[in-house]
Amino acid sequence: MPLHWVRKDDYEAMSLDGAERIAAAIEKRLRQRCPMLLGLATGNTMIRLYELLAGMLNRSGLDLAHLHTINLDEYVGADGAWVPPGHPLSYHAYMDQNFFARLDPKLGMRREHIHFPDPARPAEFDDMIHRMGRLDLQLLGIGFNGHIAFNEPMSESEISTEAFAALPTRVIDLTELTLETNARLTAGGDRSQVPRQAVTLGMNSILAAREVLLLACFPEQQEPLSKMIRGRPTPTLPASYLVDHPNSTVVYTGDRISLDVGG
């Protein structure tokens, strides 16, 4: 099945659509008494979605004891470890503030089921996901340069299409565009606040997910999304690999992004 494109009027409608899709996937899996591996993303795109999703789960009364969350990435400090929770860009802190703290404790979400890739042992993250099956649903944003998670673009002279798709979880150096964008969007323009490295879930585990949901709401995302529409998978545009994924959806805001997805 080809990549599915969904246009929503604005940020609120996009967030609601995404939250409903995720809540339905969680409920279906947990009602079957199966563990649920939910891949989560961070960033400004997801803030309202997490508020809405937490509300939906709280109202559902679902037992979340078998829900595992798999965060895509985290910044790495100069010491080679995660940035501390007190760092202004900490994704651990972002997830706690925007999602986990909003969940009713009675739902039974377990702290030990909240997973982030460890920069000291990145391969163990892929091993854990493999042992548990694979990701049931992976939520993604898209970088202005087309990256997904922090899998940054590479030229086809550096790496083959197949080798890029097989990339594992690893520590990487962030590109200048990513550093500049994240400084502007999440660090008040202070470039010094943005670490130069991150640990990221690899393309291999992302593409193995049963379902992928990508949300986009910034005008700067129009260019990489447009390249995906009639393009092919290429390391120069990591998000392009979703074109060949058997169950992937892009939900975007029509008031900020104009795409020709017909025919």
Short description:
With 263 residues, this protein is α/β, with parallel strands linked by helices. It has helices spanning 11-31, 47-60, 91-98, 122-131, 161-165, 176-186, 203-207, 222-229, and strands spanning 4-8, 36-40, 67-71, 73-76, 114-115, 137-140, 170-173, 197-200, 212-216, 248-253.
Describe, in plain words, how this protein is organized in 3D.
- By secondary structure, this protein is an alpha/beta fold.
- The protein has one domain: Rossmann fold.
- The protein is built from eight helices and ten strands.
- Strands 1-10-9-6-2-3-5 form a seven-stranded parallel beta sheet, with helices on one face. Strands 4-8-7 form a three-stranded antiparallel beta sheet, with no helix packed on it.
- Helix 1 packs parallel to helix 2.
- The two termini are about 15 Å apart.
